[in-house]
Amino acid sequence: MSSLSRPAVAFAFHSGYDHTAVIAEAVARGAAQSGAEVISTPVDTITDEQWVQLDAADAIIFGASTYMGTDSAAFHTFAEAGSKRWYTQTWADKIAAGFTNSGAKNGDKSLSEAVVLPGATGSFPLVRCRGGVSAGGSDRPGPVNTQVPWAHTWA
After folding, report:
1. Label partner for 4 (CA 20 to 30 A): which of 36, 70, 73, 82?
2. At what angle are helices 123-130 and 73-81 packed, to 10 degrees?
């Protein structure tokens, strides 16, 4: 934890049309009002310094726009860029959460909502579980059960 009285909460998100950013800002205001140090990180323009801030944060809240039933390409790029954090378990024991947003109420968000739906697939479980964060998935590298598809073994 960054300090005993003020945890650092990072928001790593992509917002294609600013709608997801509005949600991230609202959640960040709530975290700040609760006493957290807030770190805002748009993942499509992430810098080396912001990667360090994510590594140092006590919790990471992931957010992505839903396009065509899954998270945005920019969020997928962020997830791939963070793959070494899984290998080194840099984010082990962090608290994680996530949210998604789309332009339609009825759009299929099942792949994007994986952070809140254990057993679902998509980038969120790869980031949260392969990254080693605490969000309900296994923190062990590699598949838990090689007899089933790998994505379903993490949560």
Report:
1. 82
2. 20
Q: Give the mean pLDDT of 123-147.
A: 47
Distance (Å) of CA 68 to CA 93, 108, 109, 123: 32, 8, 9, 14
| Three-state SS annotation for 84-121 | HHHHCCCCCCCEEEEEEECCCCCCCCCCHHHHCCCCCC
The tokens for 40 are 């805002």
Q: Average the pLDDT over 126-155 and give the result.
A: 43
CA distance 40 to 137: 24
- How much is the pTM? 0.73
Weakest mean pLDDT among 113-117, 129-133, 150-154: 150-154
Domains located in the chain, CATH noted? 8-153 (3.40.50.360)
**Pairwise CA distance, residues 99 & 93, whole Å:** 20
